[in-house]
Design brief:
Layout: E1 3-8, E2 14-18, H1 22-30, E3 52-61, E4 67-77, H2 79-90, E5 101-105, E6 121-127, E7 129-131, E8 137-144, E9 151-159, E10 167-178, E11 183-192
C-alpha cells in the first residue's frame, strides 16, 4: 500500500502513513478535538462550560481512485456558526437550515471568529451526507468530483446553503492542489463537549 505524508491543517507537521492508516489516525488523534502531542492543536474553549470545536479530514484521490494527498486537523467554529446552533435550539422562525454544505477556496487569510464566508470560494458547494457518530457530534461528508473545485486549495468552510447562507466553520491549511481529474472527499465534524 502506498505511503505518503499526512500534513496537519494547522501547522504543516507531517506524518508518514499508509493509505489504510489515514482514517484510523484521524479517529484516534484528530476527531474529538484532542491533541496528540505532535503538532495538532486542541481547539480553544468557547465558553466556560461548553466548547464547540471542528475537525476536518481531506482526502484527495486521482482518476484511478488512488489516495494521493491528505490533510487533517482542527478548525474554527465561527461566531455565525455558534449563533446558528442557538437559533436551531431556540426554534427561531424558519428554523435556520442545517449546515450540510461544504465549500472550498483559494483564500489564505487566517480564519477568525468574525468570518462570514470563505475568502475566495471556487467551484460549486457540495451538499454533504449528515450523520451523528456520537451523541454530541455532527458530521458532514462531501465529495468534490472531478472538475469541481479544481485549483490550489487552501481553505474550506461549512455552510447551511448552496449559495450565500450562514458560515458555521472555516479552516485554512497548506495547499492541496486538486487537478481537473482528481476528487476530494472532506469529512467535517463539529463536536460539543
Amino acid at each position: 500500500m502506498k505511503s505518503f505524508a499526512l500534513r496537519s491543517l494547522k501547522n504543516g507537521a507531517e506524518y508518514q502513513l499508509t493509505g489504510g492508516d489515514v482514517d484510523e489516525f484521524y479517529s484516534q488523534h484528530i476527531f474529538g478535538c484532542g491533541h496528540n502531542g505532535k503538532g495538532f492543536p486542541q481547539s480553544g474553549w468557547l465558553t466556560d462550560s461548553t466548547r464547540a470545536c471542528g475537525t476536518a479530514l481531506l482526502k484527495m484521490f486521482n482518476v484511478d481512485g488512488e489516495l494521493v494527498d491528505v490533510r487533517a486537523g482542527g478548525n474554527l467554529v465561527v461566531s455565525t456558526g455558534l449563533a446558528l446552533v442557538v437559533d436551531r435550539i431556540q426554534g427561531v422562525s424558519g428554523p435556520p437550515a442545517a449546515a450540510d454544505y461544504i465549500a472550498v477556496g483559494t483564500g489564505g487569510t487566517a480564519a477568525s471568529a468574525g468570518d462570514t464566508a470563505l475568502q475566495t470560494e471556487i467551484g460549486t458547494r457540495v451538499q454533504g451526507t449528515l450523520s451523528q457518530p456520537t451523541s454530541a457530534t455532527d458530521r458532514a461528508v462531501s465529495t468534490f468530483s472531478a472538475g469541481n473545485g479544481t485549483g490550489a486549495l487552501v481553505e474550506m468552510g461549512r455552510l447551511n446553503a448552496s449559495s450565500s447562507g450562514t458560515l458555521v466553520a472555516r479552516i485554512v491549511f497548506s495547499t492541496i492542489t486538486k487537478g481537473a481529474s482528481d476528487s476530494l472527499t472532506i469529512t467535517h465534524d463539529i463536536i460539543y463537549s
